[in-house]
Design brief:
single chain, alpha+beta, two-stranded antiparallel ribbon, 29% helix, binds protoporphyrin IX containing FE
Amino acid sequence: PQLQAQLREELWRELGPTGPPEPGDVGRLPLLHATITETLRLCPPAPLALPHCALRHTSIGGIPVPVGSILVPNLLAAHRDPDTWDHPEDFLPERFLAPDAPSRALLPFGCGARSCPGEGLARAELFVFLGWILREFRLEPPAAGEGAPGLGGSGGTVLRPPPFRLRLLPCLPPA
Ligand code: HEM
């Protein structure tokens, strides 16, 4: 609830009554951007990216990779590596507001020549729609005693959240 209030305050302070954010507003909404980035870190939608086949002998970090090897990048594990991330299991968007955030270790869209070509579109959609929802609604558990949605997910190419219910309560601009 506290983070939602901070995000709503940022959205209304920066954009006023003009409407939902646009992709070009990223620089004005650092907390929204950090929240999306932290979501992609903790629950990368494609946790094992896509398999790649080595076309020649090579190495990664000193480990030999013979030609023909199938490589499966474990993005989920990389995003929760305690050698890189402080409190890796916690949802802490503010980690990406710090200038020394290990952003190079964040790979939700893969990296290199075959990284996701949809990254720009996906990021723009996340930014506009999450910003729009959080500007207009407060998200709450469906009923007293029911907890927040679980952060687990079923395996597969795409990480799917367990079914969940939420209440979206329309809210006024912050005072
Ligand atoms: C949050 C949304 C998305 C995430 C997290 C995501 C993530 C990824 C990842 C990790 C890969 C594998 C990269 C690699 O092999 O190293 C990939 C590949 C790919 N993605 Fe996405 N993606 C997203 C949205 C999209 C969208 C919106 C499109 C198209 C409009 C798209 C099209 C593709 C295509 C075509 C590939 C295969 C690229 C290739 O093998 O050269 N993705 N994506």
